[in-house]
Design goal:
Layout: H1 22-54, E1 58-60, H2 63-70, E2 74-77, E3 84-90, H3 95-109, E4 115-121, H4 130-139, H5 142-154, H6 158-174, H7 178-195, E5 203-208, E6 213-217, H8 220-229
Parallel strand pairs: 3-4
Antiparallel strand pairs: 1-6, 2-4, 3-5, 5-6
């Protein structure tokens, strides 16, 4: 617009921008104030959600979602029909998963048989071997799964390439369609993750099968607190 100048705070208005009426400035000021108040109002909401997860407060889910959380899980400790199930969304190349895994096992063992531990394979795209390892793990059972799981947690880099090739060849000999089965199970795991809003690993849940309540736990302390409640 011809004759209009930018005005800095404290600078006096001149004739060239006199056509900007006081009402326009008032509308701008009101808009800024409203946006600011909306931002302030959101802060307690964010804090409340974070607090709820950190303290392991129960999150009630519909029965269908509760069942999906256990679908395609691999139980590695305890009876899958135990009253309480700890479910960990897990990535074989996730450093926190490797670090915290033994501590999660200790917590489950300290429940004295009340809880079992299950793994949901949830490979992250940033990890080059994670998806291939998750596929293999999803179709193995019993002692084979335990052996693979133990080896995968110890190895890194090119050693993981060797592990993938070894188990991939072995599975192909016994079932040439194993990758189709594996893809289906990973899809089921992703569906379960979406229902409980998982987007990172490790993500921990404690399921009370008797009451249909799921405790979403963002820390080991939250998991311990949730187990102590049941």
């Amino acid at each position: 617009m011809q004759g209009t100048k930018l005005r800095f705070p404290g600078q006096k208005s001149d004739v060239s921008d006199a056509h900007l009426k006081d009402g326009q400035y008032r509308r701008i000021e009101i808009t800024v104030i409203v946006i600011g108040l909306m931002g302030i109002a959101m802060i307690p909401v964010v804090r409340a959600r974070t607090h709820s997860m950190d303290t392991g407060e129960p999150v009630r889910l519909p029965v269908t979602q509760f069942q999906r959380l256990l679908l395609s899980s691999r139980f590695i400790i305890g009876d899958e029909n135990a009253a309480f199930n700890v479910v960990e969304f897990f990535d074989y190349e996730c450093p926190p998963c490797r670090l915290l895994g033994p501590r999660v096992i200790d917590i489950v063992n300290s429940s004295k048989g009340k809880a079992s531990l299950a793994i949901q394979n949830f490979p992250l795209n940033m990890h080059p071997h994670a998806r291939a390892l998750a596929k293999i793990a999803s179709v193995l059972g019993g002692s084979e799964f335990e052996k693979f799981h133990s080896d995968a947690l110890k190895l890194t880099g090119t050693d993981l390439d060797v592990l993938e090739a070894k188990w991939g060849e072995k599975l192909t000999i016994s079932n040439k369609f194993w990758k189709l089965d594996a893809n289906k199970k990973l899809e089921e795991a992703n569906l379960a993750a979406s229902h409980v809003q998982v987007d990172s690993t490790p993500s921990l849940f404690l399921i009370d099968r008797r009451k249909g309540i799921v405790y979403k736990c963002s820390t080991l302390g939250a998991l311990e607190k949730a187990i102590s409640k049941v």
